[in-house]
Amino acid sequence: MNQVARILFTLGFSAVASVAVAGEVTVGPRPFFLIDDMKEGALKTKLLSCTGMPMKKKLFSIGHRGAAMQFPEHTRQSYVAAARMGAGILECDVTFTKDKELVCRHAQNDLHTSTNILASGLASKCIKPFTAATGDQPASAECRTSDLTLAEFKTLTGKMDGADKTAVSVEEYMDGTASWRTDLYAASAGTVMTHADSIRLFQELGAKFTPELKAPAVEMPFDGFSQADYAQKMIDEYKSAGVPASDVWPQSFNLDDVLYWIRNEPEFGAQAVYLDGRYDSGLKPDDAATFKPTMQELADMGVRYIAPPLWMLVTANNGRIVPSEYAMQAKAANLRIITWTIERSGPLKTGGGWYYQSIKEQTDSDGVMYELIDVLAKDVGVAGIFSDWPATVTYYANCMGLE
Fold first, then answer.
1. CA distance between the termini of the chain
2. Phi, psi of 29 (to 5 degrees)
3. For all residues of the chain together, what is the average pLDDT?
């Protein structure tokens, strides 16, 4: 490829090249859109200086459910898109079916918002059928993987996650994609995946693995299938596929799952990630007294990786984005930090929403995205960033020489 073609390829202007050139990474126009929106300064100058440079896959760039900003999450097409954008690690959220087979879904009970089940012959199997909105009651439904066999699950088609709660029909309910996402690819881009399918695909794509063991929506044990059985089965599928433990970062919001892997599968447990959801139970990122267990206590249990949402790692000081007390305590305990999720909000000029809540006054333009990423990388020292559109992180990691 000549230099002009390479620059066009990197900028995302050659759709043909992104398919035809095996193994190449293309970041497309979004990183440049964000850079253009930045305030003038050294960071913007540095990022612009990397225009046209060849891009490589980076472990720092983690595909959150694939490339879910524009492709249906946890589908083959979403994962391939994320890999093409240079995500070195891809995520399969793991749950199980009625016959206790592992599949990739964000939740055991999200089929009604993330697949076509309500418009299929399997709608009758939903634990809560579609109910139209009436008066003050929003439209609702609930459909679980645990109510379907694996064979039934594989007949579904993934769609952009979302639901219209004002709907009076199934068709309206399913048409709930957020305005800042797109349905452009959804009609032909919804191949659902088993966990084993995802392992084979990620191997083909040259990516590593970060499966998340999702909390069951059903009571455990489920038909004799215990929580320990569930945690073990996920690891066993990597062992059966010959995947080295060093290529896998198993995750869970349930600390007991993480401790199970540390004790029973120590090679995999060495990279087990504790997804920190304690913001729902009183943890305040600026108050170390609320960290229960403390960061050092987690480290003493054998935890090596911790993964909070973006906003827990940063705060504002005199108009600048700086590390939070949470981030400093985690570093002091030698915990490696991964964080989630950029590209999971609409335009940032109005504050960015939940993921940016601790810096909402600083979040006044889309260009703030790279200011935040820079603080997370250099000042907080995160090992990786989840994104719904991994090109943004891939570009930064390549420009800054990160792994």
1. 25
2. -85, -15
3. 94
- Cβ-in-10-Å burial (0-12, 13-18, 19+) of 229 comes to middle
Query: Which residues does 386 contact at the CB level (< 8 Å), separation at least 6?
Result: 62, 63, 64, 91, 338, 339, 340, 341, 342
Is the Cα torsion angle 276, 278, 284, 289 positive or negative in sign? negative
DSSP-assigned letters across all residues of 118-175: GGSTTGGG-SEEEE--BTTBPPEEE--GGGS-HHHHTT-BB--S---TT-SSHHHHH-
- Residues pairing with 266 in the sheet: none
Count Cβ atoms below 10 Å from residue 360 Cβ, excluding itself. 16
Q: Are the CB atoms for 202 and 249 separated by under 8 Å? A: no
The structure tokens listed for 206 are 């040259």
DSSP letters spanning 241-272: TT--GGGB--EES-HHHHHHHHHH-HHHHTT-
* Residue of 321, 328, 253, 339 lying closest to 287 (CA atoms): 328
Are the C-beta atoms of residues 139 and 132 closer than 8 Å to each other?
yes
Band of the pLDDT at 23, cuts 50, 70, 90?
low
- Residue 355 makes CB contacts below 8 A (sequence gap 6+) with 309, 310, 311, 341, 342, 344, 345
Express each pLDDT in 62-71 by its tens digit. 999 999 999 9
CA distance 197 to 187: 21
Report pLDDT digits (tens) over 84-103. Answer: 999 999 999 999 999 999 99
Please say whether the beta carbons of 91 and 64 come within 8 A. yes
What's the pLDDT at 394?
98
In the numeric block, which tokens belong to residue 89? 């690690």
Q: Tell me: the pLDDT tens digits for 340-370?
A: 999 999 999 989 999 999 999 999 999 999 9
